[in-house]
Model the fold of this input.
Amino acid sequence: MRGIGKRFGSGLAALEAIDLDIRRGEFLSLLGPSGCGKTTLLRIIAGLTEPSAGLRHLSLATSRGGQIPSGRIGFVFQDPTLMPWSTVLDNVLLPFRIAGRVGTAERERATAEIDAVGLAGFEQAYPRQLSGGMRMRVSIARALVTDPDLLLLDEPFAALDEITRMALNDDLLRLWDNHRPTVVFVTHSVFEAVYLSTRIAVLTRRPGHIVADLPVELPQPRERTLRTSPPYAAICTAISEHLAAAMAEEGPR
Amino acid sequence: MSAARLWRITAPLAVGAALLAIWEAVVRIEDIPPYILPGPLLIAETLWTDGPSLLSSLLVTLRITLAALAAAAILGGGIALLFSLSRVLALSLFPYAVILQVTPIVAIAPLIIIWVQEPFLALLVCAWIVAFFPVVANTTVGLNSADRNLLALFRLYGASQAQTLRYLKLPTALPYFLAGVRISGGLALIGAVVAEFVAGTGGAETGLAFRILEAGYRLAIPRLFAALLLLSMTGILIYLVLDTLSRLLLRHWHESAIEEGEE
Done:
């Protein structure tokens, strides 16, 4: 697999002149105030929204003729976005079903992924029988079931309580460590971004552009004790200052 | 059975029984003749004695009603599906569906009876015109109500239009479709009765509506009430069957089908 590179120079009101290279295997957080176009940027990366200016270039190992094969990109939305009429297993099987192959191997793969997000035994449950955190786990399992090269997460834990959120942070890191996909994680929480990422890009208010692009040099794998360590606090402080500056800055135009 | 559930059944029954008792008492005390207002006991008696002859008429009406309902569900769902696939088709045809819906069936029924020679078919068309619109309107809304993020996800995984329809839009539309069918069930019965009123044909293939007219002409008011009672009971039965069907199909996931206190 070659590295993944994307370049934007969008004249869209939501985003402006964004240059961003995402390196293979990194965990990049896009951090910024509400409504700064983080979600738009993520959707452009996914190919769900066309940029009005600039170029988006994705190089994935298996890409052929500009068409990205199904399942190379996983997407987790802010809401769990499950199909309420389908069981947990059927929800996780969705990417395979669309690809037109649901056999024993795929069922086993989906079951293993449900197990990996800590929902073993809930395969036949319906979404309404699950808590918010569990639904989000199903959503993550669905995004990971195809072993994507690129995993995009759009404030996935914003609606969850702090305890569930911290548990899911650790699970996400563990899953990332297993598959090592490239992750782009949108959040407005400084602490979450620093805890999870290997790199953080700070965006300004609309029209959003990147004002800071910093590596997070903290030991891997991340442990819970890190949350109270001085280096973690120092990075959080630095990032917070960048964010404060980004908030204060009047967008051009 | 929980206390709340018991109440839900006993309370309306008690009200009904009380009203019937008052009705019977008023008829007896005021000595109202049966050709003006028969008491409930007399109506029950008439239903018992005239039951067999009314029942064959009921079957005729019921056949038209069920055929119209089936046609409304199938064709209505089909039309909604076409509308969702082609915006041009939806924009150009929907107004005519509305026109068909708002035109009183009493006014167009004579035309249909003239144009369609076969009486059963003519009545069926009339009842269908009354019944099909809720299915079309509801299902159209349902097919356009798919979650935007799920739609994006389907696009991300490269789903074809057929797959998006089958795995996302149709399941999303199902509760809407069923709600439409539930409304259409009552309307199909009304449509069938109204069409029979207009058609007014006698003979072996006579529906319940004609029996009501006939009883009215002969001042056989208890018989009229008995026929009316049969019609109401049929309507209730159709509603209950459709409601049960809807609950069965949606029991796993849709809020409307989830029993209170089950959470």
